[in-house]
Amino acid sequence: MNILIRTPVGQDYRRVWQGFNRDLFSALAPPFPPVRLLRFDGSLQGDEVHLELDFIFFRQKWTSLITEQRESPAEIYFVDQGIALPFFLKSWQHRHRIVRQGTGSVIIDDITFQSPFWLMDYLLFPTLYLQFLYRKPIYRRLFGKP
User: Fold this and answer.
1) pLDDT at 140 over 90
2) Residue of 52, 53, 81 lying closest to 65 (CA atoms)
């Protein structure tokens, strides 16, 4: 399954890229499940991010590896690939794109995921979609409205 969310913001794409740090990662965490950041190396190729998701009655670990990071005159992007995922996910790839647009930019969350069962993909989709939609006002607050 694929989730694609575009958020236009007012800052130049290079300034937005500089803001993709530990503080932003923490600000983007949805209210549920609470996320504890165990390790954050950054957003460059080879960096890792380790999380613990708290579902009240149980906890799940999530480890992502930044498998790719590139910059061009038109955009900057990086890809995080899930390498240790919660039981309800079989695969995860999140391409974070910051695309130049006039004097501002567009942040694109391009997520591809798969659960262990195809029916579960459709059940997870609305929840995951809303968790990433939650980021839009945070991006705009931090990086300005276009």
Assistant:
1) yes
2) 81
Residue that is written with structure tokens 């579902």 in the block: 55
Please write the tens of the pLDDT for every residue from 2-43: 999 999 999 999 999 999 998 898 888 887 888 899 999 999
Q: Quick one: tokens of 92?
A: 């995860």
Distance CA 19, CA 72 (A): 17
Three-state secondary-structure class, residue 89: coil
Q: In what order do the strands lie in the sheet with 35-40?
A: 2-9, 104-114, 91-101, 75-84, 59-71, 48-54, 35-40
One of 3.30.530.20, 2.40.370.10, 3.40.630.30, 2.40.50.140 is the CATH number of 2-143, namely 3.30.530.20
Q: What is the pTM of this model?
A: 0.92
Beta bridge partners of residue 79, listed in sequence order: 68, 95
10 Å Cβ neighbour count for 106? 19
- Residue 118's pLDDT band (boundaries 50, 70, 90)? very high
- Smallest Cα–Cα separation from 77: which of 66, 88, 86? 66
